[in-house]
Every structure is written in C-alpha cells, then in structure tokens.
Specification:
mainly alpha, 0% strand, 436 residues, 20 helices
Length: 436
C-alpha cells in the first residue's frame, strides 16, 4: 500500500490525481500482448489496492479491463511459482471483490487468481480447492463453467483424486457441445492428457496432447498458447519415453515460439525447456549436449523465487546423466539430494520417481541392501500417492511405463552413446558443447 501522506499531505485532490496517473501507467504495463515483469505486477497490485482502499473513481470499463488482465497475469505468475513480499496480490484481489460484484462483472476470475496463488504452496491445497469451488458457484454460463471446471479437475489430478477428475472432465466435455465453449477444447484435451500421463498410460496421454494441438490450430490463437505449450512439453516427454527422441526434441523446441504472459512464466518455462532437452539428449546418448542444457537449466532455476520442486527434478535429470557417464556413486549422491528436496516440498510424486530411480541404480551396482531400502520406500510412497481407489489403474499404468523404459534400455544397451549426428538438438546452441 502507498501512503497518501507521503505523496501530498492533506490534499486529497492531489492524491486522487496521483492514483489515477498510477492507474493509467499500470494499465499500460499489464496490457495484453506484453510480458509483465515481477515489478510491474507488484506495482499494479499496489495501484489496485489504492483505488479500492481510498475509493478513487476510475472509468468502469477501464477498471474491468484492468482487472481482467491483472487476473490473467496473476494466474500465470501464480502457476509458475511467483510470490509477492509484504503487500501481496491476494489482498488487492480480495478488496476488489465487492466493487466487481457491484458493477455486475464476473467474479470467478478473481477466485481463479487466488487459487493459482496457492497452487504451488506446500500448505495451499485446501485454500486452492476452496477458491476453485467458490469460483464454480459464481459461474453464470457454460463457458465459465468449463473454464473453472477444468482448473478444478487439474487440482484433483494434482492431488491424485482421479475419479473426481474424471467426473468433472466428463461434465466439461458435455458442456463443450455448446459452440461458445469450442475454444476450451484444447484445455480439455490437456487435462485428459495429464490424467492419463500421471497414471502411466503414455499412448492415451499422447493422443490427447496431440489432439490439443490439433484443436488449437497452427498457429494457435493467443488464448490457446497455454494449452499448446503444455501439449508440446508433455508430448516431448512421452515421445522420449517411447524412444522417439528426435521427435521429442522437435516438439520441445516449439515451446520457444509462444509469448509469455509474465516474467515468472518466461523464467520457469525456459528452465524446464532446457531440463527436458537435457533429459531427451541424455536418453538418446548425446551426453555433451545434455550437459550443456542441464547447466543452462540450473542457471535459470536459481533465479526463481519458488524453485524447490524444479531443482529436485533437475537433480534427478543430472543423476541420470551421471549414471550414463558411469559415475554411479555421484549419481546416487545427487539423487539423494533430490529426494530430500521432494520431502521438504511435499512433492509426493517426486519421492516415488526418485526413490525408484535410486533402487535401479543400486541394482546396477549390485547393492542389494540399497535396492531393498529404496525399493521399499518407493513402494510405500507409491501406495500412499495413489490411494486404494487408484491402485488397479496405477498398476496397469506402471507396467506400461516400465515396459516402455526397459524396451528402450534393451535397444540402447548400457551407456552406449548415440552415433555421431544420430540425434540432432534443434536449439542450435549446444552442438559445440563439451562434457564434464
């Protein structure tokens, strides 16, 4: 909050003019088509708080546009782990609720912005769920219902409530028969793809991610950028798991062509792009190029405010590279750090993945005690993650995922680099990279 005494003492006319000028500048900064920096987003939240706190009158249409765009940017920043110090966005959004409702504007986007804020907080699950349920209650049309329903379905997927996610997705699919909801089909496919992916059904997931790209169009409109980026990201991961490494790289590099909404989104997207490129290049045997991309990912992730889970995933990728280079002890040490970070951030899926990987490394080293320890921890974490109601589907998915991985290992052989030129990274920057 900005103090009006600091600006103009007891002259309210000067204060009102100052707030209005600040509002105009903030509106320019959050205008559609521009990437909004962390500083600009914080300033915009401060301006909104001043408008609401002191009852400064601004044009209602401009205020509506400002709130719409601010919530879009805050969703982007929240989903990508950004946080605000001291005065935060949630305070400003909460203060704006009564005015938005009184003006007859939709309030569900404000609840969605609040939910996004909590989406990456360890203790934010219940607050995220509550905000999304409140958003659903104030929806007035089919399109609003689909928009909020898909975000609520993704929340259920994130917390492994797969049956609830399926019910919501079936409801959203029915609503998408309404022509006004047609542009939500890419997001619908993304949610279905995520649902299948986390349960190990790789081919079914790939079908939905590719369907998301098909329904979004080429090139997609700006409203479909978020879905397209996720479709390319997960398509790349799945294609690599299926052994189609060059296709995976070509999918991943297309992420660079989409504009970002916030600075947090740009940083996190760039960090994960390098991470995924490194993973695919490691799987394909191009180890020097993989090392280059993983180093770039590390350099970017240290700039993120909330990067614990991202760093853990990166450590897991580095461990895989070290294992391919024959440094099993180093790989296990790095992987142990990933497990600790996953526990600290309550990243339950990561605990399963990292402990399972550690068990495989112990197996390769004929360390039967280590295999038993990591294997039992991974199994216990896997059961707790999926719950009794999801175990059957999870078993089938795990079998599909493991069989795919084993098939690639058999075709590749132990630590066999790809022939020179066999795997081409499309980034154009790592061809001359040197390994560790």
């Amino acid at each position: 909050m900005t103090s009006r005494l600091g600006y103009c003492g007891e002259r309210p006319d000067v204060w009102i003019a100052t707030v209005r000028r600040s509002f105009g500048r903030a509106l320019e900064h959050v205008e559609a088509g521009r990437e909004v920096s962390d500083t600009q987003l914080t300033d915009a939240a401060t301006v909104l708080d001043n408008v609401m706190r002191y009852g400064v009158e601004v044009d209602s249409l401009l205020l509506s546009h400002f709130l719409t765009r601010l919530t879009q940017v805050s969703v982007s920043a929240g989903e990508h782990g950004d946080r605000f110090d001291g005065h935060d966005l949630i305070t400003a959004i909460d203060r704006s609720m009564p005015l938005v409702a009184a003006a007859g504007l939709a309030t569900w986007p404000l609840y969605v912005a609040r939910a996004s804020y909590y989406s990456r907080q360890e203790d934010g699950r219940s607050a995220r769920r509550k905000a999304l349920k409140e958003a659903k209650l104030v929806c007035t049309g089919n399109r609003d219902m689909v928009e909020v329903g898909l975000m609520l379905a993704q929340h259920h997927i994130d917390v492994c409530e797969y049956r609830a996610a399926r019910r919501l997705l079936a409801e959203c699919r029915r609503l998408c028969d309404d022509p006004v909801c047609a542009d939500r089909l890419p997001e619908l496919h993304i949610c279905y793809g995520n649902l299948y992916y986390v349960q190990g059904s790789l081919k079914a997931a790939l079908h939905h991610f590719q369907s998301a790209l098909a329904t979004a169009g080429d090139p997609p409109p700006a409203t479909a950028y978020r879905a397209a980026v996720r479709a390319h990201h997960y398509s790349g991961k799945i294609l690599s798991a299926l052994g189609r490494h060059q296709e995976a790289l070509d999918q991943l590099i297309r992420i660079e062509s989409y504009a970002c909404v916030s600075e947090a989104e740009r940083n996190r997207r760039a960090g994960f792009l390098h991470l995924r490129l490194g993973e695919v290049l490691t799987a394909g045997g191009s180890l020097d190029e993989a090392h280059h991309h993983l180093c770039e990912s590390r350099r970017i992730f240290v700039r993120l405010r909330e990067s614990g889970t991202a760093q853990a995933i990166l450590d897991s990728a580095v461990a895989t590279l070290l294992m391919r280079q024959g440094w099993r002890r180093d790989a296990l040490a790095v992987l142990a750090g990933a497990v600790r970070a996953a526990r600290r951030d309550n990243y339950r899926r990561g605990i399963v993945l990292f402990e399972t990987k550690a068990a495989l490394y112990h197996f390769h080293g004929r360390d039967w005690g280590g295999l038993l320890r990591s294997g039992s921890v991974a199994l216990g974490a896997w059961i707790r993650l999926n719950g009794a109601g999801n175990l059957v589907r999870a078993v089938f998915g795990s079998v599909e995922y493991v069989v795919s991985s084993l098939r690639q290992r058999l075709l590749r052989g132990p630590r066999t680099p790809a022939p020179a030129g066999a795997l081409r990274c499309p980034c154009g920057n790592c061809s001359g990279a040197s390994g560790t």
